[in-house]
Fold C-type cytochrome biogenesis protein CcmI.
Amino acid sequence: MSLLVVIAGLLLAGALGLLYFPWSGKGAVDRDALNRTLYQSRLQELVQERGEDNPALVVELQRTLLTDIPPQAQPGERPLRRWALLPGALLLVVLSLGLYLKTSDIGQVLLWQQAERHFPALLQQVKDPTAAPLRMDELAELRLGLRSHLQDTPNDLAGWQLLGRLGLLLNDGETAIGAFGRAHALSGDDPAAAFDYASALVRAGDSGQVRMGELLLRDLHQRQPNSLPVLEMLALSAVRNEDYPEAVAALQALLARLPKGDARRAAIVRQLAQAQQQAQ
C-alpha cells in the first residue's frame, strides 16, 4: 500500500513538472534578433565571396530577412508567469486524488486496519459471558479481524469455528461454509465439526452443497442414530431437496425421541403435518 502511494506521488509530481517547466520562459528565442543576425552573417559571406557589394543581392537579402522586422525594437513578449499555472496544477492534483480514491480500495484497507486494531478487544468481549453482546457492526468488524488473524494462523481450529458461526449470524453463507469446511478438515473425524459443516451446507448452500451436507448428515446419523440435531438437520435437508417422504421419516423419528414436555414438539408437529401434505 505504501509503495503504491509513493509511486502515485511520483507520477503526480512528474505530471506537474511537465505542466510547469515548458512554460517557464527560459530559452525563448527572439525571432527579429535571429533574422538580423542571419542577415549580417549572410551579408559578410557575400562580401567575402564577391569582394564588393552587390546591390541587387543586398536588396534581395533585405527583402527576405528584414521586411517583417519593425523599424523600432519592440519589447519582447513577457513569459507566462508561473503563478498563472497554479489553477491548472491544483485541478490536476484534485482530479488525480479523486481518481485514486474512486478506483482504489483505500476505504476497504482502512476498515481492515481498524478491524485488526480492534480484534483483540472484540474477541475478548465475545468470549466473556458477562460482557454485553456485540452489535451487528461489531460482529462484522470481528469477522474481518478474524479473517486477518487466520491468514497468519491457518491451523487455528477454534478460530475457523468462530468465523463460521459469525458467517451464519451475519447471513454470510459463503464465509460460513468455507470456515466450517476448513475446521472440518483440521479436526479429522470429529463429529461436532462434521455436523457444523453439514449444517452450513444445508442452511446456506446451493443444491449441490445441500446434497453434500445431506451425505455428511447420513454418515453422522449412522454413527449417532439418536442425535436430535442430526435428525432435525436431515429433515431440513429433505425439505430443501423437496424429498418430502424423507422429511416425514426424519421428523417422525425426531418426534419419537423428544421428551413429552419438550417445547419443540409443537413446532415439529406442524412441520410434520406440512411435510405429509406435500408428500401426498
In short: The mean pLDDT is 79. DSSP finds 13 helices and no strands in the chain. Residues 106-127 form the longest helix (22 residues).
